[in-house]
Amino acid sequence: MKVLLVDDHPLVLAALQAVIQSIGSDTTVVGVDSAAAARATLAADADYDLVLLDLALGDADGFDVLVEFRAAYPAVPVVVVSASDRASDVIRAIDSGAMGYVPKKSSHGELHEALR
Predict the structure, then answer these.
(1) N or C: which end of the chain has fewer CB within 10 A?
(2) CA-based nearest residue to 24, from 49, 54, 55
(3) What does the pLDDT read at residue 113?
(4) What is the pLDDT of residue 69?
(5) Helix, coil or strand: residue 101
(6) For residues 77 and 63, is the Cβ–Cβ distance under 8 A?
(7) Burial of 104 (0-12, 13-18, 19+ CB in 10 A)
(8) 89-92: long-range contacts at Cβ-Cβ below 8 A with a sequence spacing of 24 or more?
(9) End-to-end CA distance of the chain, in Å?
(10) How much is the pLDDT for 21?
(11) Max alpha carbon distance in the chain (Å)?
């Protein structure tokens, strides 16, 4: 599985990369720290099995990026991974095309299960 992880917080990005990479040896995680870097990464190679997207990005609104990616790359599922667990954010993300929503406070096991 090839995963693009988008999160602007360096510690969270590194931690999530490690957790996702531990799913299996066939899992590749490319981590980027901005919407601009995610756009450039997907423009260069859209052959990803999954995009994990934080909603709170420093250079863009995560909901806008979600809508943009769903329109530009409809074959690539996007799952939101966010510190927010507000029901309104979950509903808005799903309504905007997210295939799932994983709160950052989830355990490693819950994250692995959600990705499967």
Answers:
(1) C
(2) 49
(3) 76
(4) 98
(5) strand
(6) no
(7) middle
(8) 89/55, 92/63
(9) 10
(10) 86
(11) 36
106: phi then psi, degrees, rounded to nearest 5: -65, 155
Which pair of structure tokens corresponds to residue 85? 């667990």
**The residue type at 68:** E
The structure tokens 């979950």 sit at: 90
- This prediction has a pTM of 0.91
One-letter amino acid at 75 equals A
**Could you write out the DSSP letters of every residue in 8-58?**
S-HHHHHHHHHHHHTT-TT-EEEEESSHHHHHHHHHH----SEEEE-SB-S
Residue 54 tokens, joined: 């934080």
